Amino acid sequence: MMSARAYFGTTAAIAALSASSVFADVTNQQVWTDWHDYMADFGYKVSATEATSGDTLTIGDLSVSMDIPEEDGSITISVGEVTFTNQNDGTVAIGMPADFPVHFVVDAKEDATATLNWTSKGLSMIASGDTDQITYTYSASMMGLSLADLEVDGEPFDSAVMELVANNYSARSTMSNGTLRTMEQKSEAENLSLHLGFVDPASGDNMTFKIDTTKLAFEGGARIPTGLDSEDPLEMFQAGFGFAGTFQHSGSEGELSGVADGSPFNLTFASAASDWNMAMDSDKFDYSGLVSDIAISAFGSELPFPVSMNAAQLGFGMLMPLAKADEHQDFGFNMHLGDLEVADILWDIFDPAKVLPRDPATLTLDLSGKTKVLLDLMSPEAEETDDFPGELHALTLNKMLLQVAGAKLSGDGDFTFDNSDLVSFDGMPRPTGAVDLNLMGGNGLLDKLVQMGLIPDDQAMGARMMMGLFAVPGAGEDELNSKIEFNEEGHVLANGQRIQ
Fold this sequence. Notes:
With 500 residues, the protein is mainly beta. It has helices at 4-17, 28-41, 233-238, 344-350, 380-384, 442-452, 457-470; strands at 45-53, 56-68, 73-86, 92-95, 99-106, 112-121, 124-129, 133-152, 155-156, 161-176, 180-199, 206-225, 242-249, 251-260, 263-271, 274-280, 284-300, 307-321, 329-342, 361-373, 390-404, 407-418, 430-440, 472-473, 479-486, 492-494, 497-498. It starts with a helix and ends with a strand.
């Protein structure tokens, strides 16, 4: 796994060399000095020459590098020449080469070296502001990364392809200096495309992956401690490191295709607008996303026929506390798959007579709760332990919904947990609370499954007896309600009747 130094440092290096938000003063020398210090804070070794002529400071033979001990490798970015020019209006213009290489060397199970080329067209970078706060505006008609060469165990891998291109890119960044460098950024691009591919020279198997995304936008920021030790993620976050951002786009489409074991395969996918949010600091990790109007189709040797499906929405969210604390902390998890439709050819496999309703299916689950974190989850101790490093103290089922084939199951509930009692429920803290469930169309679905021959009559009868044990009739036709309670004595009750 790539170290924190490599992950955050590589990102910082590319951002710095793109002038996203690393300079912190109004003269060319101060801009360059701050850039140098910023890169050194991330563990990079910076090598360059300096020459001044008039209002222009020229940094020649610029190279930044970093060792990656965990991967027995290194990263080197050789930029060549960068200029910093004082302008009459108090701003600094930064000039960079139209292209420069990024070298990777990995000495692991298989030795590998790779070179990526960074390219741009019409790149403009301007720094303005004062010594406490600098604003950067920059734009480019095109920016991209492409694989120039790849060697594995000394042999060239000429068939490998990697191209990442952003068109009509613009951004505005603001950075403030202090014990923590704070950065805020807004950026957008007309479109972003990614192309990956390779051919196995021995077998002829190959793979191509392409994705195109339109009207991308990002807004977010980060806090970076000066003089941090990014080899230690826990120390880095405790020193104040954190980031948050929102990413959006208006649509994407892609394709994965190739040949595996001599058999062709193909997967195509598309979506409309998407919205993703992520935040992380020493206390918590918070992530959520929602994609709309998803369409997927696939075929291959493992599939007897082409498969296609559509969904109106796909969403996911997670809130996880990270820091050890005596007080209880919030956590959460949610997922949503809305209006899922599959092709009739799939339905016809097990329901050729069209017995089941083919209405779109929906699955929703929304959980929240309280936990006590016993170990800092970023610490080595947490990685080494086999035990769950926390205690569950409360859990709320905000919403559960499963709607498929004419039946609908929904529910909600709320529980607290006594961590001093790990006996009543075989090692699990004893719960107290209740969940309310509602099932519509359950018996009708069983009837149809029996009619189709998927469930024998005796098994359907057993299922009905179980529903009779745990549920009572509701107000509507083919409606069942159930209230499952856990009391302080460790008893479990269904609709008031003790079942444990």
